[in-house]
Specification:
Helices cover 45% and strands 15% of the residues.
Length: 222
């Protein structure tokens, strides 16, 4: 069976244009963060599984902020994928291509977007039927010129990408103008410093700026 990615989730990603990538140091900040992002118009997050509390925070968010679409990030093993599903994640992404995780995603039918950085990575995911891919690390590996060159040979296949990696508000319009970019992800709306400091109003303001840019760009291109 191929690796799937829910069409409904893909449509929500395209409608938003922006995914907030967040790392939570404790469970107590999860709900205020989720509400701050939603207040700014960002309804999709990638919550990285990089802290001991990540899964508990994911479950709390899913229960108390149900309007959020939550992706689990930094999924490195089949066990991570299973744990993310059990905690209530809507989808999952990984930084790279791990065949064991791809096989588990295919077996369970859970929406999963593996991380790719090269044409070889993309072709590996094609073996598993992947249609939505995380492109990482987008800027450090060469930015938009590299992204265009690396993905050009596969445009006829209709693959869709979520670029992440050192992206920011200034880069948002150029990436969103690409027809094969479903959304971009970034940490600038909710950095570790902002989260640790409980600066929810600032997070809301940054989220609102990002969501307004996305609406303007996508509105102009639709």
């Amino acid at each position: 069976m191929p690796v799937v990615f829910s069409e409904e989730i893909a449509l929500r990603l395209r409608g938003s244009g922006v995914v907030a990538v967040v790392t939570l140091p404790d469970v107590e900040r999860a709900v205020p963060l989720g509400r701050a992002l939603l207040a700014g118009g960002i309804g999709i997050i990638e919550l990285t599984l990089r802290t001991p509390v990540a899964l508990a925070a994911l479950a709390r968010l899913k229960h108390e902020v149900p309007d959020l679409l939550i992706g689990a990030g930094t999924v490195l093993s089949p066990a991570d994928l299973q744990a993310a599903r059990e905690a209530g994640a809507d989808f999952a992404v990984s930084p790279g291509v791990n065949r064991r995780v791809l096989e588990e995603a295919a077996r369970t039918g859970f929406s999963f977007a593996p991380g790719v950085a090269t044409p070889s990575d993309i072709e590996t995911t094609l073996d598993y039927g992947c249609r939505v891919l995380k492109f990482f690390p987008a800027e450090p590996i060469g930015g938009l010129p590299y992204f265009r060159a690396a993905t050009a040979p596969y445009e006829h296949l209709g693959l869709q990408y979520i670029p992440l990696g050192s992206l920011n508000e200034q880069l948002l319009p150029a990436y969103l103008e690409r027809p094969n970019v479903v959304a971009i992800g970034g940490t600038w709306m909710a950095t570790g410093e902002l989260i640790a400091g409980g600066q929810w109003d600032k997070i809301t303001a940054l989220s609102r700026q990002a969501s307004e840019i996305a609406r303007r760009v996508r509105g102009a291109s639709s």
